TrEMBL record:
This is TetR/AcrR family transcriptional regulator. Residues 7-67 form the HTH tetR-type domain. InterPro entries: Homeodomain-like_sf, HTH_TetR, MT1864/Rv1816-like_C, Tet_transcr_reg_TetR-rel_C_sf. It comes from the Bacteria. Residues 30-49 bind DNA. Pfam families: TetR_C_33, TetR_N. Keywords: DNA-binding, Transcription, Transcription regulation.
């Protein structure tokens, strides 16, 4: 156990939690274990997270931040547009495969996924980059709010469903097949 010596214990605990999620589920993750991994007492954790639910919510928020960053990078690599929209979908699936426990946490009841932008009427601005990218890409394909919402829901359902099918061992796809399935969803601009 290394001793904690820098000034941002909250960030250190989140980093430790992310490392622990690499080989276990969120249900198996404990606050005491996170505290031990950064070399502090279990009571020190409670200064930043009042309970396990708050800790899991912070991990989920970081997972969504990482997912959004991966999606944004993927879209930029291909130059945006329709290819960028497909790239964000493929990045979503690849993120889930690379981070199964974090992905499941981010989209669980403990998670903080914000789909308000998909609500009738457009909802509020999304609180995370992943949802913001989905909203913006779908709005670029249609100026009609109802049509834009349908595009976003279909795209999210496709990539989320595909990710879960892969994570649950229902299908096995290589990178080329993931790209093919995701790019096969090609909404046209109206």
């Amino acid at each position: 156990m290394r001793k904690y010596h820098h000034g941002d214990l909250r960030s250190a605990l989140i980093e430790a939690g992310l490392k622990l999620l690499a080989d276990r589920s969120a249900d198996e993750l404990g606050l005491r274990e996170a505290a031990r991994s950064v070399g502090v007492s279990a009571t020190a954790v409670y200064r930043h997270f009042p309970d396990k639910g708050a800790f899991l919510a912070a991990l989920a928020a970081e997972g969504l931040r990482q997912l959004g960053a991966a999606q944004r990078d993927a879209a930029e690599r291909v130059g945006g547009g329709s290819a960028g929209f497909a790239a964000t979908g493929a990045a979503y699936v690849r993120f889930a495969i690379a981070n199964p426990a974090l992905f499941r946490l981010a989209f669980s009841a403990s998670g903080v996924q914000d789909a308000s932008c998909l609500a009738p009427g457009g909802g509020e601005a999304p609180s995370n980059d992943a949802a913001l990218l989905l909203r913006d890409h779908s709005r670029n394909l249609s100026t009609d709010q109802a049509a834009s919402r349908q595009i976003a829901l279909r795209a999210w359902a496709l990539v989320h469903g595909l990710a879960l099918l892969i994570l649950d061992g229902q299908v096995v796809l290589d990178d080329a097949e993931i790209d093919s399935v995701v790019s096969g969803f090609a909404p046209v601009k109206n």
